[in-house]
Structures are given as C-alpha cells and as structure tokens.
C-alpha cells in the first residue's frame, strides 16, 4: 500500500518506504498473534475531582506487552489495529475487561466511573450499540458508571451521523466524553448538539497554562464548557501549579502524572485502598 498524502496525491515507493511497509506488515502479523495469545493488559489512570482531590474514577489505557519488544505504546498499534479490523476483537476485549474491573471496584458501594476509549472504527460499527449493551449486561455493570471517550476528530467527521450514535449510547445510560479537545477542528454549533457529559482538554493546553496566552485559552474553553453545562476534565496535569490554577478556574476534573501515571490493576487497587482510608494528601506532592 502506497502511503497516502491526501486525496489525489501519489507517493512513489522507495527502498526506505519498503522497509517501513514490511515493518508494518510484521507488526500486523504480530498483532494478530497477540490477540490470540492475550498479550494485552489494561492500565488505569485515576481521575480526580479538583475541588476536593478525591478520585472519581479511572481511565482504562491499553498496553501491549510484546514478548521481545516489551511494552508497545497504543499510539503505535491502535492505528494498525484500526486499519486491519483487528480493532473489533481488541475493542470488545477492552470494553469487557474495563467493565469487569469497574464492577470489581464498585462492589461494596463505591461509585467510581470507568472511562473507556473508543476508536473511530468501533464508533462507526453498526454493531456498537449491541456490543455495549451485551457487555454491560454480561458484567452486571450500571452504564451510569461507564464513560466512553471519543476524540474530537472522530465525532466531528460526520457530525449528523455522530449525533445519532451518541444519542443511542446516551439512551443506554452510559456517559460520553470528547477526548483531546482542542487538537482537532470543532464546530461549536455541533458541540452544542452533541449529548456529551465531559470535555477533556488536551494536555498541550494544560502544559502551556503557565503562559498568559496559554491560560487565556484554557479560560475560554472552561467558559464554554460552563455555558454548555458540561464538565471539563484537564488532561496531562504534571505540576501542583497547574492544579492550583485549574482549581481557581473551576475546572471540574483532572488527571496526569502529578497525581499518578497509569497503573496496573494491582497498583490501582492499592491506590484506592490507601485513598479510602486517608484524607487526600496530594497537595504539595511533586510528580514522581
Ligand atoms: P488519550 O485517551 O488521550 O490518553 C491520554 C494519554 O496521555 C495516555 O497515553 C496517558 O498515559 C498519557 N498521560 C496521562 N497523563 C499524562 C501526563 O501528565 N503527561 C504526559 N506526558 N502524558 C500523560 P497512552 O496510554 O500512551 O495512550 C495514548 C493514546 O492511545 C490515548 O490517548 C488513546 O487515544 C489511545 N488509547 C489508549 N488506550 C486505548 C484503548 O483502550 N482503546 C483505544 N481505542 N485507544 C486507546
Ligand atoms: Mg482518552
Ligand atoms: Mg486525551
Ligand atoms: Mg490522545
């Protein structure tokens, strides 16, 4: 397959590209095998209520533990999985595993939300609503505890069609987030029509917040979420300064290395235990 640089553009194959393509093909073969051999795990990054610094839930983030290469990041293999339809079995495994974990963590009356990333291919799949419904039922999890994340570019792609699908998901009872907000192209008119609960402000805005213009941008996004009546989630919080600023600006929720990196199940479990008994002592903590 020739690399596409846009509609109507051609790229001539050169030897370097040949190497890249065979790398990709190899990765595809390995990915197929990895699904059969279950080389994936979910990591969980806690999400905090910024006003009281309590954990409100987790975002599930997939990891591929490759037998030779070690940890392969999702930005490398998710696009390949999407191109090859492997995203369907993989996506179902992610949903099932994250829902099972949410059920475990909410036993005994906790009310944690599990955020799950949906790829664009999954979102457009005709079977999505069935898959979601079955997965929630199978794991006896209330859809109210599930928050599905979709990137801005996926939902803006075919906005009218997206509204339909988003409404169907809301009918099931699940919550919805726009992920990586600010990195794509959003029509504010559509944003208003989407039945979304949360808007996740991309990390690139949070880490430029110490500059005047960066802060103005975050301020503007927060004013918009407030007028839309939805919650804002700051992604990629790395410093206590950022926490303080976001608190002053009334940003509702946040996640990032300042609080915690994504954790394996066991470590996330330990964090929760500790969090339940202690008062949240995150105040002056530096990123680890
Ligand atoms: P995302 O959904 O926007 O996830 C946030 C990414 O930012 C995660 O990277 C997370 O580890 C990272 N992150 C969190 N806090 C910080 C911070 O303070 N500083 C920095 N520098 N990074 C931070 P990760 O896990 O590598 O995932 C990358 C992307 O891959 C995700 O972006 C998402 O688009 C995709 N992805 C991950 N897991 C899944 C999945 O289960 N399904 C699908 N479809 N996509 C996934
Ligand atoms: Mg996400
Ligand atoms: Mg994001
Ligand atoms: Mg992202």
UniProtKB/TrEMBL annotation:
Signal peptide stretch: none
Keyword terms: Coiled coil, Phosphoprotein
GO process annotations (BP): phosphorelay signal transduction system
UniProt-recorded name of the protein: Response regulator receiver modulated diguanylate cyclase/phosphodiesterase with PAS/PAC sensor(S)
Part of the full-length chain shown: 434 to 721 of 721
Domain EAL: 24-276
Chain residue ranges for the region called Disordered: 268-288
